Amino acid sequence: MKNYKMSLWGLSCRLLFFACLGFTVCQSCTEEKESLATPSNISFSHDTVRFDSVFSAEVSPTQLLRIYNKSSLPVRLERITLQGGEKSPFSLLVDGAATYEKTNLRIDAHDSLTLVIRLRPPQQGGNSFLLSDEIEVAITNQAKKHLSLEAWGLPHKDIHGSTIDQDTEWSNASALIITKPVVVAKGATLRILPGTSLYFRPNASLTVHGKLLVEGTIERRVLFAGTRLDSAYKYTPGQWQGLLLMPESGPHIIRNATFRSAVTAIRTDSPTASTTLENVIISGCSRDAIALRNTKLQLSGCILAQNSGSAISLRGAQVSMDFCTLTGDTRFGQARRASLILLDTPPEGSENMLSVVNSIIWGAYSDEVRATGSATLDAVNASHSIFKWTKNRPAPSERWEKIIYDDPLLEKPAQLNVELKSTSPARGTGLVVKPDAETLYDLKGRKRLGQDGKVDRGALVFRVEEENLRD
């Protein structure tokens, strides 16, 4: 009986031993299968992750880097390391946790691992500066992949709202972030020098009771924009409140400037002196690009495009426009709410007047020039221009001549490219005005008067030698 019990005990021990041995063998087989995926089974969404410019000391939007396992078996990565460690301006989130290094990472078969990358540039100097680092992905001790991180840090000076009561210059030493409304007092002049970039927070604006001089050049334009720099949002409409030119202000001169993503880029109310815009681009407004009340305005060489409201709204305004392009295409699917030119009821004692020469006014509406209230279209005079106008067109006369109603054939207006195609009816059909004027250049610095003595209609000049460059 005793021998029988011992034999039973021995048998149980043997069974337990073989069970453990089998489990160990199976586990080894499993691990061996996980390691069968070779480095050739691993791929990456990017070799270099590039950020848009980021303001110094501010956290960037995130960028994603994906590591793909193309194998039918799971794999493990030995290590992922941000080479700059704690001193790096970049930071990693792996599996939802912030880290500079992560080890023993598993990627299931035909699955991927997502790395979330952020950036916070340090405060540094007055000029933009390049930031770089690397992510090392150790697949095995022998197989490693290095992925580059690159970004430009943008130094800035914050202006937390103020009243400018004496003559002041803003320069391009560093970007200016306007966090709250800024007011230029009566009698003061704000001069903005070439190459200056102004970025506005959502509730910020620039209100001028005095005088505004924006002195950009073809090579160094002045920028007015919202503070979103990342490409996914930089053109989103309505990011800041815009520029307001108040009663008894002026004269105002704005040359070679770009206004982007405002509510209304420029609003005026009864400035006593005229306002001049030369080679100005206005795009991405959630309302009108320019809204005028009791104002004299001269536009030359300007592009007004991709705005949800009117390009120009007139209420008792007298506007002269030459070599301009106004288009109705929009980005991001935002709906348009008005024609490109809107003449509204003028205040008592004033009237609307619009003179258009050598310009293009084209969009999806059947009539891109409209009058509302007591305003009339008799206020419009035009020559050598292109209009989208299908109903109640003015009859040819001294105030309405050499008008084309055909598609101007712009390159890609939905992408803010309003260059003329080679077959555009705007080519060589403009009215030659001031052929010797030094200022007769488009905003890219191309002379309007061609060797054949002709000029193009619209803001941009077509040049045969540039056609191949765009292709």
Summarize, please.
The protein is mainly beta and 471 residues long.
What this model shows, in words?
- With 471 residues, the chain is mainly beta.
- Helix content is 8%, strand content 39%.
- The protein is built from two helices and 40 strands.
- The protein has a 17-stranded parallel beta sheet that branches. Strands 13-15-18-21-24-27-30-33-36-38 form a ten-stranded parallel beta sheet, with no helix packed on it. Strands 2, 3, 5, 8, 10 and 11 form a six-stranded mixed beta sheet that branches.
- A hairpin with a 5-residue loop joins strand 10 and strand 11 (144-154).
- It is elongated.
- The N and C termini lie far apart (98 Å).
Give me some keywords for this one.
471 residues, mainly beta, 17-stranded parallel beta sheet, 10-stranded parallel beta sheet, 2 helices, 8% helix, elongated, disordered C terminus
